[in-house]
């Protein structure tokens, strides 16, 4: 249930102006809704109830995927896509694992750039759309591959975005995957509701929450956890990104985004969800993303990489997979 | 319409999330207000409103008056100190609990944005800053549509576009610049946020999120580059806990020593830990980013004319 927007009126105010008109605070009807008075009532397209006929198709298409993991955060720029891409690389380190990444951020897709496949396009065949393969066992799907120009803005309202997400799920030939990672835009709106409703039947393992340590970010992540509860998505855990920065010159550790309210660990405890770990800020992560390289392969010994491995280990535990099957060495 | 007495409307946009739209909006509002202008801030990020937290007015509630909603006052005008009033409106004020989520699809968001533009009683304002969510979708389309339809010619001064330096961010922000040109919103300029971090221990500057990406992008699109803003953990602390910014001795900003400028007087020490929205602008004067935003604000005011 969306919270009520009706604010109780201050008593003094009402007494002073008993005749004043109250501004309309009623949530509007959905777009294209003919309304109960109309002759079209119950007959228009979006009045049609019942199950979505495409959902069985989606479930059939995704039947070869063992684990589906959402990467969520109410807040933007906390590192959802960075984390998703690193998770993808981590899972794909063992050649036996097949991994797919689906980018549902329609207005600001970042995954293709981070994976170094920005210039690719999608191939369409009779049986569906083929994802772009970064390596033999790591495939990616994003709207970026469908844009004629790299900088084109996708100025779409919700229903159009939902349509594309459905098509990504219905028409993309993922084949047999061990893991499908779904990267999402910030917020709690169309994309999130759609991904959840389309995937519900075929089963989602759960969602990983990404946050940064400061309260301004935690505030929005709290909303996202609230959303997961309402939508019935299992929260696999919380990852705190950008926690602490080690100066490359003097190795002094600074808390750039200081956790004044206890950071991710305290939030996880408060909400009763697993805390998967803290990943420090490392300028090399950003650079790897800009050049589309795998941070995991380039700097395997960095503190950030060690922290990430810990997170991956915790995550595999949550979805009931043996960590040894994911992280090859050590 | 509630915007009829607003002189200039400035949008703060970015295709990318978490680059500091709300931080920049906060600082622009404080700078404009410290320069004596009356300022309103409208937060149209419906699923992740940050302005109430930024201004430290999370507990505040919106009141209704005949004909509309009254925005929340951050601080009143103070003619003596040359400070203009600062008011704010956000969906955050309408929620019951601070952790509550509004899980809304597009049409509902559209209606809410329209209502925010038509039903808030702003009164006389020099500047209305509109903070937006990331992306180019429902909120942005509704905002552009409503403003194009209802605003006076010239009332929408344009958009300040915020980015961080790394290519992953500018890739998204380029889309936002194209959005502006498609919808006919003039671009006032680009601000590069999180450009470098100065280690408080050894003063070595590290470009955590690379460097110069915003300036290059501004050049490519032939729009004004308003400036690069570094990361200042003291500003984060000011917003997070209301702590007055304190810098180690010898910290220089634009050739001026700002360390110790605030710690000398008793009054400052007393207010340094108090979390009070009314003091925010006063404390911000001691922040290293204040001179930067002062300059950016002057450039924006000059550009708008």
Automatic annotation (TrEMBL), chain A:
Record field: compositional bias (Acidic residues): 1-10
Keywords annotated in UniProt: 4Fe-4S, ATP-binding, Cytoplasm, Iron, Iron-sulfur, Metal-binding, Nucleotide-binding
Binding-site list for ATP: 74-81
Keyword Transit peptide: no
Binding site for [4Fe-4S] cluster: 247, 250
Primary location recorded for the protein, binned into one broad class: cytoplasm
Region (Disordered): 1-52
Protein name (record): Bcnbp35
Subcellular location: Cytoplasm
Pfam families tied to this protein: ParA
Family: Belongs to the Mrp/NBP35 ATP-binding proteins family. NUBP1/NBP35 subfamily.
Automatic annotation (TrEMBL), chain B:
Binding-site positions, [4Fe-4S] cluster: 199, 202
Subcellular location: Cytoplasm
Listed InterPro entries: Mrp-like_CS, Mrp/NBP35_ATP-bd, NUBP2/Cfd1_eukaryotes, P-loop_NTPase, YlxH/NBP35
Binding residues for ATP: 15-22
A Pfam family that the UniProt record links to this protein: ParA
The species this protein was found in: Apiospora aurea
Function: Component of the cytosolic iron-sulfur (Fe/S) protein assembly (CIA) machinery. Required for maturation of extramitochondrial Fe-S proteins. The NBP35-CFD1 heterotetramer forms a Fe-S scaffold complex, mediating the de novo assembly of an Fe-S cluster and its transfer to target apoproteins.
Residue runs in coiled coils: none
Calcium recorded as keyword: no
Signal peptide residue numbers: none
Protein name per its UniProtKB record: Cytosolic Fe-S cluster assembly factor CFD1
């Amino acid at each position: 249930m969306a919270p009520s927007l009706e604010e109780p009126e201050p008593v003094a105010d009402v007494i002073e102006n008993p005749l004043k008109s109250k501004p309309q605070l009623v949530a509007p009807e959905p777009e294209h809704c003919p309304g109960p008075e109309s002759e079209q009532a119950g007959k228009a397209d979006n009045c049609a109830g019942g199950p979505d006929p495409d959902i069985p198709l989606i479930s059939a298409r995704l039947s070869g995927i063992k684990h589906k993991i959402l990467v969520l955060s109410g807040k933007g720029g906390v590192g959802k896509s960075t984390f998703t891409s690193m998770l993808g690389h981590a899972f794909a380190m063992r050649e036996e694992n097949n991994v797919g990444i689906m980018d549902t951020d329609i207005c600001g897709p970042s995954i293709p750039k981070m994976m170094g496949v920005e210039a690719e396009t999608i191939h369409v065949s009779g049986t569906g759309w083929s994802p772009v393969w970064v390596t033999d066992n790591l495939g990616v799907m994003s709207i970026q591959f469908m844009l004629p120009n790299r900088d084109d803005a996708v100025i779409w309202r919700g229903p159009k975005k939902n349509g594309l997400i459905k098509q990504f799920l219905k028409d993309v030939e993922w084949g047999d995957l061990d893991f499908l990672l779904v990267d999402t835009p910030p917020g709690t709106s169309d994309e999130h509701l759609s991904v959840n409703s389309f995937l519900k039947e075929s089963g989602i393992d759960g969602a990983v929450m990404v946050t940064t340590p400061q309260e301004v970010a935690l505030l929005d992540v709290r909303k996202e956890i609230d959303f997961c509860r309402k939508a019935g998505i299992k929260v696999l855990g919380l990852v705190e990104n950008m926690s602490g920065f080690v100066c490359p010159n003097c190795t002094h550790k600074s808390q750039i985004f200081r956790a004044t309210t206890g950071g991710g660990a305290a939030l996880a405890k408060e909400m009763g969800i697993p805390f998967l770990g803290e990943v420090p800020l490392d300028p090399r992560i950003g650079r790897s993303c800009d050049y589309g390289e795998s941070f995991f392969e380039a700097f395997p010994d960095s503190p950030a990489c060690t922290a990430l491995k810990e997170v991956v280990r915790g995550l595999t535990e949550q979805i009931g997979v043996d960590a040894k099957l994911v992280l090859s060495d050590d | 319409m509630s915007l009829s007495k607003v002189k200039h409307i400035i949008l703060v946009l970015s295709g990318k999330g978490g680059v500091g739209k709300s931080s920049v909006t906060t600082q622009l509002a404080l700078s404009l207000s410290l320069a004596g202008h009356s300022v309103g801030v409208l937060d149209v990020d419906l699923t992740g409103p940050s302005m109430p937290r930024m201004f430290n007015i999370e507990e505040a509630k919106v009141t209704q008056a005949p004909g509309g909603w009254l925005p929340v006052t951050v601080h009143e005008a103070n003619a003596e100190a040359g400070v203009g009033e600062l008011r704010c409106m956000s969906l955050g004020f309408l929620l019951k609990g601070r952790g509550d989520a509004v899980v809304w699809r597009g049409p509902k968001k559209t209606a809410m944005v329209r209502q925010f533009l038509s039903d808030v009683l702003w009164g006389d304002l020099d500047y209305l800053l509109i903070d937006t969510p990331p992306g180019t979708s429902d909120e942005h389309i509704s905002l552009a549509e409503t403003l194009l339809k209802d605003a006076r010619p010239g009332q929408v001064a344009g958009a300040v576009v915020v980015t961080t330096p790394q290519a992953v961010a500018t890739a998204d922000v380029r889309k936002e610049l194209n959005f502006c040109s498609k919808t006919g919103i003039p671009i006032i300029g680009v601000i590069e946020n999180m450009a470098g971090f100065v280690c408080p221990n050894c003063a070595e500057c590290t470009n955590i999120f690379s460097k110069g990406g915003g300036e290059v992008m501004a050049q490519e699109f032939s729009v004004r580059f308003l400036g690069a803003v570094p990361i200042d953990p003291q500003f984060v602390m000011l917003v997070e806990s209301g702590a007055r910014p304190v810098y180690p001795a010898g910290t220089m900003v634009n050739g001026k020593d700002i360390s110790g400028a605030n710690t000398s007087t008793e009054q400052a020490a007393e207010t340094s830990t108090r979390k009070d929205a009314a003091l925010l602008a006063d404390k911000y004067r001691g922040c290293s980013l204040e001179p930067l935003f002062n300059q950016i604000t002057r450039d924006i005011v000059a550009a708008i004319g």
